[in-house]
Write a structure and sequence with these properties.
alpha/beta, Alkaline Phosphatase, subunit A, Gyrase A, domain 2
Length: 382
């Protein structure tokens, strides 16, 4: 019964991994198919990724987003885990996490004693603070060709328009290397940068990123009035870009995950039985990688303590269920927890000592519920 509360990502037919391969096909790049049936006869495409915009939430708050909800209502699945670092790499490579290897927000890399934060591209916990781009090169952690590399090789100008902190970051180098970066200093500058990039060559692929809806959802909750106000801002951004698109262009609006409000908090750092035989706890509150030295006993304990509010699966079970995609490489499998534990309701496994800020925020994501997994695919053609 618990499994029926969750969704398995529709890899290959309706997932974030299928979006940019379909776009490349529409732009005339050989080697793939239009998996999503976009059927775009265009020379210029802008993909606007709105961090934290779930398809369910957009449908529920249609009045705050009149432009976006005026477009045909289509949704795709973000992938697993439904979290930013994984999804941005999925979008940028056209691959599920089981292939590109960024299997979570925080994961264990073989040979490293400390957990690796893939969003910040740094080792966590006590130890020297070093630039992990040198010690853990992005093209080694994620070795597959990116969509931008494929586009550039085909003669398409590939441009990322995003905040300055993403320029040259480990995550950008892992998922988006091969194109040109244009810094956006403000919302107005983002819109201008997108429009400039779209007309910079005969064929262009522009990816742009907006973070503030996600920030608002984390801080105030995805059902808050503040979130609705921020959604209205997102809607205006999309409408401004759409109104000024050059001929033979398309604007595609999507997201990396949705969000739920955390109600029940189970604190790993104060619940002694949960830590027995656990070496490290990765992931995030709604999708945990549990690294153990006795997975069978830990699984039994966690199932007893957590009950039906969480699904506890072994690494092999999670892989066999297709959570990480139809193919899971050896490197990716080695980064997945001995157990993968996901929330089915409105709870999360927090760490008040090790992760104090994350434990206090209201909005969370990572699991396979519809609210977290389904993201919009709204398309405007010029």
């Amino acid at each position: 019964m618990i499994d029926h509360l969750l969704r398995t990502p529709r890899y290959g037919t309706a997932s974030l991994a299928d979006l940019l391969p379909s776009v490349l096909t529409c732009l005339g790049v050989p080697g793939d198919t239009d998996r999503l049936g976009l059927d775009l006869d265009v020379d210029h495409v802008c993909v606007l990724l709105v961090d934290g915009l779930g398809a369910d939430a957009l449908a529920a708050e249609a009045a705050a987003a009149p432009f976006l909800t005026s477009l045909p209502e289509v949704s795709i699945d973000a992938g697993f885990p439904s979290t930013t670092a994984t999804s941005l790499t999925t979008l940028g490579t056209g691959l599920p996490s089981g292939e590109h290897g960024i299997v979570g927000y925080c994961m264990r890399l073989p040979g490293e004693e400390r957990l690796f934060n893939s969003l910040r591209w740094q080792l966590m916990g006590d130890g020297p603070k070093v630039d992990a781009r040198a010690t853990l090169p992005p093209d080694r952690i994620q070795p597959h060709r990116t969509i931008f590399e494929r586009a550039t090789e085909a003669g398409i100008a590939a441009v990322q328009v995003a905040p300055s902190y993403q320029d040259g970051s480990g995550l950008t180098m892992a998922g988006w290397r091969g194109g040109r970066f244009h810094t956006a200093y403000s919302v107005g500058d983002l819109i201008d940068g997108v429009l400039t990039a779209l007309t910079s060559a005969p064929k262009t692929l522009v990816y742009t990123y907006h973070s503030e809806l996600d920030t608002t959802g984390h801080a105030r909750g995805p059902a808050s009035r503040a979130w609705r106000f921020e959604l209205a801002n997102v809607d205006r951004i999309a409408a401004e870009i759409a109104a000024r698109l050059p001929a033979r262009s398309a604007l595609i609006v999507t997201a990396d995950h949705g969000m739920v409000e955390l109600v029940e908090r189970i604190d790993f750092d104060t619940h002694a039985s949960l830590s027995e035989n656990v070496i490290a706890l990765g992931g995030e509150p709604r999708a945990r990688h549990v690294y153990t030295d006795d997975s069978a006993s830990v699984a039994d304990t966690w199932r007893e303590v957590l009950g039906s509010a969480f699904l506890v699966r072994t690494r092999a079970e999670a892989i066999d269920a297709g959570w990480f995609g139809p193919t899971v490489t050896h490197d990716a499998a080695a980064r997945i927890g001995d157990l993968v534990v996901i929330a089915t309701g409105d709870g999360g496994i927090v760490r008040s000592g090790a992760e104090p800020m994350q434990s206090l925020i209201i909005g969370h994501h990572g699991s396979l519920t519809s609210a977290e997994l389904r993201v919009p695919l709204r398309i405007h053609r010029a």
